[in-house]
Design goal:
Layout (H helix, E strand, L loop, with lengths): L7 E4 L6 E2 L1 H15 L6 H5 L6 H10 L8 H17 L6 E2 L3 H10 L4 E4 L4 H10 L8 E3 L12 H10 L6 E5 L2 H10 L3 E3 L17 E2 L14
Parallel strand pairs: 1-4, 1-6, 4-5, 6-7, 7-8
Antiparallel strand pairs: 2-3
Helix pairs in contact: 1-4, 3-4
């Protein structure tokens, strides 16, 4: 597989660039402590991330993938979660192997990079900076920046608009069915990593254009302009 005519690369954040679950799980349990609910633990939280903070909170409050949370409790949990996460955004999160190498090579080629995530931008931005990769990204599109979160195409379309290019000339890189769906809905190619947060499913089942073991392999698959 060789991607041609690529003018920018869009990256998902959690599960693609950063293993952020240790911090997310810690914040979820701190939140549940405040609300007088049982802690859920990292193993449970790891199966819940990837669909944005509101879905994560609903799952944490109900200890279920699909149950509906009490609206009043969810409203109470939102600001507390953001406050707690802002104070604990990068204590235990780690870059996946190959991330620095892949980003550095793409940046050296002059390809603009965007981070397109369902995480709120006010939390994603500090995480990118504190973990040491914020400078690579020309723009950050968080979950609240577009009308609908991935797998809707809105966030990818917004990133392309900000960079002044046709979204079909961007390569989306992610770890989940949401990333593949967003790319397909936007009409752009998609590469995936196999190690992220995809609710226990093999990402190959979502039929991305290619799966790379680490992001260090990605630049070799993008033809030079």
């Amino acid at each position: 597989m060789m991607f041609r005519d690529i003018e920018a690369v869009f990256f998902d954040l959690d599960g693609t660039l950063v293993d952020s679950v240790p911090d997310i799980a810690n914040v979820v349990d701190l939140l549940l402590d405040e609300l007088g609910l049982p802690r859920r633990g990292e193993a449970r939280v790891r199966t819940w991330v990837g669909n944005g903070s509101d879905v994560l909170l609903r799952r944490a409050l109900t200890d279920s993938m699909d149950a509906a949370a009490d609206p009043a409790l969810l409203e109470q949990a939102r600001p507390r979660y953001r406050r707690l996460y802002a104070a604990n955004v990068c204590l235990h999160s780690r870059l996946y192997p190959g991330v620095h190498e892949g980003l550095a090579e793409l940046a050296a080629r002059g390809l603009p990079l965007a981070c397109v995530t369902n995480k709120p931008a006010e939390l994603a931005g500090p995480l990118l900076e504190r973990i040491g990769i914020g400078a690579y990204f020309a723009t950050l599109v968080g979950g609240e920046c577009a009308p609908a979160a991935k797998p809707a195409p809105d966030a990818l379309l917004l990133a392309a608009e900000r960079l002044g290019l046709d979204v079909t000339r961007a390569l989306m890189v992610g770890d989940s069915m949401n990333d593949v769906g967003a790319a397909r809905n936007a009409g752009c190619p998609v590469a995936c990593v196999p190690y992220g947060y995809n609710h226990g499913h093999d990402i190959r089942d979502a039929a991305p254009d290619v799966v790379v073991e680490t992001l260090a392999e990605l630049p070799a698959l993008i033809a030079r302009r």
